[in-house]
Write a structure and sequence with these properties.
By secondary structure, this protein is of the alpha/beta class. Helices cover 28% and strands 27% of the residues.
């Protein structure tokens, strides 16, 4: 088609089109030079760097931590830019802010920086060798003496079982946190507000104590089945509670009542819910 159009112009005598005139480059060069000069002048005067320094911090998510402590941890003195504050926020959480799990930042218009704090949620109280801790949802232990949460955050914890450990693990990640939180959740489901203490010994065996002080030995393993059978077993034990030393629930097939004297009797379990006495 192009060849035919070219031949048509030659036959009709149509003048041949020349190359398009090039646009001058100097206006763009002049504009770039003016822009570079303005940027240099703004940088030297300090106006341009100041545009990257937030004038206001908005801190959200602080329920257990102090907002001023968060600002101090970010080292926000009014001269740090967005990048410096972002880098400080993503550094390791300070030791004096044990409830802080993560800090994120996001710039907003009008030179404002939004700081979002993600905190650990205390779930259970822990006692170990005279030391007190809070076990949080991420499996971390937070020392209680120096960082007690606000009273409203402890309302739900007061009705939950208290953990008792044989050795002091210290603040930080707890080895059996997932197991212990699962046992506490099973107790809250089957026996809400009736279990006072969950005790773990050095052999890994678990013992429960209800609000009246009755000892229930779960042993190790199959905790869900054992705890699910406890409501009926504890109802059967209620009549002779004063003479009962402890309830042996180490075997999920049958539970045994251990008395203060030598007689032992069988009570309800997951597979034997009748609760009839046995030898």
């Amino acid at each position: 088609m192009k060849r035919q159009a070219k031949l048509g112009r030659l036959v009709t005598g149509e003048p041949r089109r020349g190359p398009r005139p090039r646009r001058p480059v100097w206006p763009w060069l002049a504009l770039a030079g003016v822009g570079a000069a303005l940027v240099t002048l703004g940088w030297i005067s300090g106006w341009l760097p100041a545009q990257f320094v937030p004038r206001q911090l908005i801190i959200r998510g602080c329920c257990l931590s102090d907002a001023e402590a968060i600002a101090t941890a970010l080292e926000a003195s009014g001269v740090e830019n967005y990048w410096q504050l972002w880098r400080q926020a993503h550094a390791e959480a300070p030791v004096d802010l044990p409830w802080v799990e993560h800090i994120s930042t996001r710039p907003l218009p009008s030179r404002t920086l939004l700081v979002t704090v993600t905190e650990r949620l205390p779930l259970l109280a822990v006692a170990a060798c005279g030391q007190r801790y809070w076990l949080c949802d991420d499996g971390q232990l937070v020392k209680a003496e120096t960082s007690d949460p606000a009273p409203d955050a402890l309302t739900s914890i007061a009705s939950r079982p208290r953990l008792r450990l044989p050795d002091d693990p210290g603040a930080g990640p707890l080895k059996d946190a997932e197991l212990l939180l699962g046992i506490a959740a099973n107790c809250e489901t089957a026996l809400p507000e009736k279990i006072a203490t969950i005790e773990l010994n050095r052999q890994g065996e678990v013992t429960l104590y209800d609000r009246g002080g009755l000892e229930v030995r779960l042993g190790s393993g199959d905790y869900h089945t054992k705890i699910a059978a406890l409501p009926k077993a504890l109802r059967i034990c209620e009549a002779n509670r004063a003479s009962l030393r402890y309830l042996d629930a180490t075997d999920p097939r049958v539970f045994y009542q251990k008395w203060n004297h030598t007689i032992s009797s069988k009570t309800a379990s997951a597979e034997d819910p009748s609760g009839k006495p046995g030898a």
